[in-house]
Structures are given as C-alpha cells and as structure tokens.
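Z., the sequence and structure:
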Amino acid sequence: MNILIRNILAVLPDGERVVDVCVSGDRIASVDSVPQGFVPDRTIEGSGRLLIPGLVNAHSHAYMTVFRNCADDLTFSDWLFGRISPMEDQLTGEDCYWSTKLACAEMLLTGTTAYYDMGIFMEEAAQAVVDTGIRGVLSRGLSGAPDGADGPNPRLDQARRLYENWKPYPTLSFMIAPHAPYSCTTDYMKQAADAARSLGLGLSIHLSESASEMDSIREQHGCTPIELADRCGLLTERTVVAHCVYATDEDIALLKRRGTSVATNPVSNMKLANGFAPVTKMLKAGVNVALGTDGSSSNNALNMFRDLACLTLIHKGNEHDPLAVTARQAFRMATANGARALCLEDLGEIRCGAKADLVVIDLDRPNMQPVNDPVAALCYSATGYETEHVIVNGVPVVLDGRLPDTDMEEIYAHVKQTCERIGTVR
C-alpha cells in the first residue's frame, strides 16, 4: 500500500517542520517531497496534526490487563505473591488471548506501535498481536530451575517453540526472558543465556526492582542482582533489563560496559513503592535507557503518554533539577531508545528507509493549544487519546481514533467473563 501524509508538522531526527511523508510497503519512501510517479492508495491530510514515530513500550505483561484495578495499595510482596500469583494460576490460554488483545487495543489507541511482552500463554499472545496489527516482541517468562530432581521445566522449550512457530510473521520478534534472580536458579539463568545465544535472540530480565530483592541476592550470592546476572552471562548488547531501581554506581558502569539497555518503569515503581530508578545517572553514563509501562496490574494503564509525563516530572522533583530528564530525552527514550533496546532495526525515527510505524496526533484539542513546542506538548500536555491514525509496518490499523477491524465489545465481554471466574471483583 502507498500512503501519502500531506502537509503535516512532523517530529524528525533534526527537529520539527512541515513535510510530506510517503509510505510504500512497510517503509518510509520519502520525507519532505513526493517522489515522481508516486500514486497513493490513501491520503491523510496533515493540517492541524502532528506526525510522530510510533511509541515503543519496552516492558510490559499484556496478559495482566485482566488484573487491572484489582490488586492496588499493596506492598510489592503482597501484590505479587499474595494477590497476583494466585489469580495468575487460574488463567487459561483463551483468557490470555483476550486480555492481550485488550492490551494491544489500548496501546494502539494511545500511539504505541511496538511493545515488549513477557508472559505465560504466549502462543495465544502472538495470535492477539497478529489479529490487532501491533508490533510485538514476545517472550515466554521463565522461572524455576532446569530439568532435574524437581521434575521437568517445559518453559524454555515453550520459548523455543514460540520462536519457531511465529518467526515468519513480520510484526513479531522474540526474546528469551528469565523472570528474575529471585525466581530463577543461577543454572537456569545460565541455560537461558545459552539458549538466547544459540537462537540469535535478545534477552530480558527484571533486575534490582525492590529493596527486598537487593537484600536477598546479596545474602545468597554476595553481589547485586545486576552483578549476578552478569555472572550468568545475561548482560549483553542484546539485553534489556527492566526496572534497575536500586542499581548502584558500579552496576551502572557494568551495564554501560556490556552495552545492556534498561527499561525504566516509573509509574509501576511508584505505585508499588519501590522508588525511583537512577535514570539521570544512567543517561549521563551513556546507558541506553528506554521507557516501559509494566503490566496493568502494577500501572493500571498501558498508555505511554502517561509514563512520558511521569518520567519527565518525577526526576525533576526528586532531584530538584528541571533538567534532570528533559522532554526531548524522554521522547527519545519512548521511541528510538526503545527500538534499540528491543533489537528492532530501522524503527523509532521518521526518516527515509525506516520502517513505517507512524502516529498522527490531533492538535486541535484544548489541552494541546497553543502547541509552541511540539515535543514538550507530547510530554507535558498530551493524554494519548489525541491519537487519530496509526500505521504499523505500513498498514493503517487505527483510523479516526478507532480500530476498524477490532470488535471492542467482544473483547470487553470475554475479559469480564474471566474476571468473574477468577475473582478479580471485590
């Protein structure tokens, strides 16, 4: 399909200006002018609109959308082990399909075109991604130990099958994901690192999220969780580490040396009272920092604009520095940095030859006027629901603020049935 986005203010790598953008197939064919002979199948008028690269959610658990608004105001331990885990054990593959489909719809309608997902029933999650048209980087969450005295552990085999079964789909890619050092043995983490190398895949893991995790790993292994992950071979240039709230200066230097990316999750970390990640230190050290929402059970939303606002504001207030994380730094973390963290090539920028993952924002809203600085408006003024059109891999998936090929009422009905069965309603 050929798409012409005409006369639109665009956020480009070198600044903002009014351009014509042409999409041909899955790529941006031109920026600034329309190539000779280009005939569009669809034209989007850009007056009063802003064109941005699609946002990249670098860390989430989409199946947990069914747990939204049912495990709130709890300590991290009570939230995870007392409330979420028992409900999680009751989920079926069909539950996870509909919950993931709801998550994908929410993300698309608020300008996210690509996301990372660590989950359980990932074959069903892959189908939900394909059905909604979003771009997904999927991984089967791994926990426990390798096959042995405690019996078989099928999760790594499930991760391999997920990759083999779904790798032909152009909007799907995959990572290997040991959950965390408190839920995996060191042997299992080493096995996961070996599997990623053999398959040529990236890695993802939760590290240094809570004070209790820091204490327990130091007590058991005499090091930080980040140092332990490195001993297990998990820190590579193709690894994205979630949270790092308690990363030490030495940890940050280690992440930089290994070329490892960090997905910070400011809303989730605040809600679970885990604190504030040292994002400014990481940025100053040259670590690639991306932005994630985490799951709806610990954030209650998968709206990256909400996290953009929090990211830019909390570090200013916490560090008493208005330049702690600027709007332009945050926007890059939510686009190009996220694409780099998830090993998504040619994504996160509007430039000729890049993948056509694009979002059109309606500026004719009271909260967006006057625009003045478009990037500041995105971080400090936007809600996400100014999203008007979304293109993923060259295909329009949101038109006029709607998902034309998705029955939202059907999704709501299935998710409600799951909630009633597993007891999320108090």
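Residues 361 and 387 are 5 Å apart (CA to CA). The chain has 15 helices and 16 strands.

Let me know what you think.
H.
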